[in-house]
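Ticket #4471: complex job returned nothing on first submit. Input attached below:
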Amino acid sequence: MTRRRLRVICAAVLCAIFGVGLFASTVSPYSYARQFRERPNAAPSASHLLGTDSLGRDLFARLVYGTRVSLLLAPAAALLATLIAGVFGGLAGLVGGWCEKLVLAAADLSMALPLLFVLLALRAVLPLDISPILSVIATFVLLGLLGWPSSLRVVWATTRNLRNSDFLLLARATGCGRWRMIVRHVFPNLRPVLFAQFWISIPLFVLTEATLSMLGLGVMEPLPSWGNLLRGLEDISAVSANLWRLAPLILLVLVVICFQLILPAQEETA
Amino acid sequence: MTSSAPLLSARLSVDYRNKPGVLRNIVVEIHRGEIVGLVGESGSGKSTLALALLQLLQLKGAKVQGEVIFQDEDLLHKSESQLRAMRGRQMSVVLQSPLTSLNPALRVGTQLKEAWRAHVKGTKEECLSAIRTALNSVSLPDDDEFLRRRPSQLSVGQGQRVIIAMAILHRPALLIADEATSALDTITQSEILSLFARLNRDLDMAILYISHDLLSVAALCHRVAILRDGEIVECDSPDVIFDAPRHPYTQRLIAALPGACFGKTLSRPLEILS
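Support reply: We reran it on our side without changes. The output follows.
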């Protein structure tokens, strides 16, 4: 199978999963919070495609709504992180001097701290009894605010190369103003780098959210996310009784693989 | 060709933070409609001088001292916004490599449009008309297909012509050609030299032609300055430089040329291009 065909398949899979998440209310017959108290831990059936959890909630509905939470907010967090990286990395690369030193020192300091532990510490500072919606926002804003350093390094290195390029020198020599040069000459060259950083941040944030939620510090119940759905896997007996409970894990792995495979290889972009 | 008040009169020294004395008390004078050649080996400071005249060296952390009188104004005392208004409009530059001088992410038309919009806030039609005129001046096609091309779709010669078109878009009084033909093959090089001669003749554009290629300098320039280790060691007409060089370094340069190329062929160099 050619690499191109593989990318098309991955894109189709991602589009399908995004579509399901986006139209969760149409795809799923039930709400994610609706309980069928008389049917806890039910096996898959026509009325409950993946069965139910210990509280009698439809697992398919929770998976579909969880997909919405994970797959719509991870790109939002990735966008925030890429914006921060783009603005500060670009600024450091273009301006140089003390500004560059300051920004790089901040990035290095952030990279020296393990992201997950910082997230755990910051999330722990926030009250645990906040509303589910607030927990979603807090989780992804934190991800966005903390996930920029590696992207910033890449953006900075690219911008620094651009700063010394002949075409920017020529743009200056033709009388191009500073802002126009950034918008019309620098940004078009940074765009592929920013897009790549945005794209590779999404699966990273999906996984980080899953880890946080598994630990009970991410998206709060009853709102589902892939992370808190994975918490259901703690109950081995329930998993062995209903292997469809592995669906969130399979979906998570599938999405991460698709995100990685869809990016063009470096030699193809050269 | 020459008038009493020079178009550009510069006397300057340039020091980099880690390399002082890159240019030492250089004196350059260029009159309207004159082509001055600047010859020197690699690392002698030719490109530094070009950027110093455009006041673009400060961005590289260099210290420029002296004066650069251009159209009766000292550029060293101008603000960045005043310099920006002058660059590209009254003084332009053509850099050595078209492959790196054109923005790889922008189409040819966009790059030319940007160069025009840097100084004129006209309509789209006026912009396109100016771009087409500039492209015609450098013998390039001016159709939409060409304007939509990216730099990677141009030959080296076409790329260099696009850069020259950008440089002459606003009909500057002075064009600095920094090793503009060094990356080109012999035929393209000769075409570009003819183009410079034509621009000089038709637009009365003064040209500072920087090169390490003595043959092209001999073919194009009215006066030639020899730069060595940051100092101009000799400056005279091509006839004197090539037939009776005074400075030992110039003599060595001339002696290093293939003997067969010299003699009467280059004694009236401009005739080659006319």
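Confidence is low (pLDDT under 50) at residues 262-274 of chain B. Closing as resolved unless it happens again.
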